[in-house]
Amino acid sequence: LLGAGGGNDIQWCFSQVKGAVDDDVAEADIISTVEFNHSGELLATGDKGGRVVIFQQEQENKTQSHSRGEYNVYSTFQSHEPEFDYLKSLEIEEKINKIRWLPQKNAAQFLLSTNDKTIKLWKISERDKRPEGYNLKEEDGRYRDPTTVTTLRVPVFRPMDLMVEASPRRIFANAHTYHINSISINSDYETYLSADDLRINLWHLEITDRSFNIVDIKPANMEELTEVITAAEFHPNSCNTFVYSSSKGTIRLCDMRASALCDRHSKLFEEPEDPSNRSFFSEIISSISDVKFSHSGRYMMTRDYLSVKIWDLNMENRPVETYQVHEYLRSKLCSLYENDCIFDKFECCWNGSDSIVMTGSYNNFFRMFDRNSKRDVTLEASRENNKPRTVLKPRKVCASGKRKKDEISVDSLDFNKKILHTAWHPKENIIAVATTNNLYIFQDKMN
Amino acid sequence: QDTQEKESVTPERAEEAKLKAKYPNLGQKPGGSDFLMKRLQKGQKYFDSGDYNMAKAKMKNKQLPSMGPDKNLVTGDHIPTPQDLPQRKSSLVTSKLAG
């Protein structure tokens, strides 16, 4: 059972690390998104250079029963290129903001990748045979002189080395004035939404020349702007329901059956704030950087700067669970504001059974919270722990006072080492954790 | 615990006091218009070809004034030159994750 809690805390072991060892990180190599596909067999990453790398889990080796298959490079391609919108004098980054997989329908795999302005549907297909024995062409493709053809033969397919090809099948462009932060595929597997700072659009996967605007929070007068959309996601089972989060810490649930333009929410999730605790930083740290439905569809999780909150869709006035990610940073907010770290956008994810949630922190630490046992753990993604099957040692940050041996003090944390993106295999205890430019894969210790 | 909080300043408020001491002119509404507008304008580049050519003509052989560290300042404070603009070539190099 995945993360059943109780006495069965998962023991995480290092499995693999991908990426360059050197400390000098090129901007293009900064990982910007990580996503398993629906079966967990494929793992995709996107980076600031607009590239996508897909890893495939190798088939389980019968002789190596103590570990699951490793992830090896399956395909890599340039998804987006830098652009300049001359009309608006706007530089458009090629950075991949999000990747979302479509469920597999046939032999090929499909994914959506997006930068700030354009969403693309990519088809990844395998070719392991090629036709040989053409009558009018040589094997190298040159045309034969027809007058030299004296006999006819039937071309046949012969096996060849596996080639994985990625081709863009649809380009969904020109629908976003502001910067796209989310894409989410509907449970109908025909439509998807894309959200920018002020608007959310609904697309059909087959149609690129039009999309429907379903949320518009742009005020008539921009001076009146008080909040922006930070993330959006479709409900995993109800194809008419989606949520979007805001920079003010609220989540709105909308029902597309209610009206064409879902400016009026069906539900508003907001935790009341204690006015006596309000400070300059309150709104900034309440801004939600990620929202994710549980697999069951009964709950949703939000990530704000210091915590992870679990909400029951039936209860709008407060979360049912709150987990502190790095509460010790509350007394460092001044310097975190000065170095812009307070604006870092951390993501969060559920395990396959919705019993454990995970999110990243600084110093290449990442945190897991077991909802059943209420226990949490801090682990580190570091090349120092890279012996396969060595169990990762829990880390502890000393907030104040006397630092114990093996603890690290808050002031020693490296705020340039952020884990913003993590992903959990949909079925197994395999996790992918992205540091700035490396991808770590951890597995639970199999006995 | 309530009395303790009333007596001492919360960590957040203490941090706020630190920030205001450093930057006395900091606006009252951090989540307000200015901050959000800056977020919405990410990627905006300003270039006035008139300014640029005038300056080039005046300067002749002298070095053109270049941009300060903040490349997002509205034009008028500086004159962007081609050397200041970041190279916008796409990555033809394969990702190191695939190496």
TrEMBL record, chain A:
Top-rank taxon, per record: Eukaryota
Name assigned to this protein: Serine/threonine-protein phosphatase 2A 55 kDa regulatory subunit B
Keyword check for RNA-binding: no
Record-level GO cellular component terms: protein phosphatase type 2A complex
A GO MF label: protein phosphatase regulator activity
Coiled coil residues, start to end: none
Keyword line: Repeat, WD repeat
Family note: Belongs to the phosphatase 2A regulatory subunit B family.
Annotated gene: Ppp2r2a
UniProtKB/TrEMBL annotation, chain B:
Ranges where the record places region Disordered: 62-99
Record keywords, A-Z: Cell cycle, Cell division, Cytoplasm, Mitosis, Phosphoprotein, Protein phosphatase inhibitor
Coiled coil: none
Places the protein is found: Cytoplasm
Keyword Metal-binding belongs to the record: no
An annotated GO BP: cell division
Compositionally biased region (Polar residues): 88-99
Gene Ontology molecular functions: protein phosphatase inhibitor activity
UniProt keyword Cytoplasm, yes or no: yes
A GO cellular component entry from the record: cytoplasm
Superkingdom per UniProt: Eukaryota
Family recorded in the similarity comment: Belongs to the endosulfine family.
Protein name as catalogued: Alpha-endosulfine
Protein species of origin: Tricholaema leucomelas
Name of encoding gene: Ensa
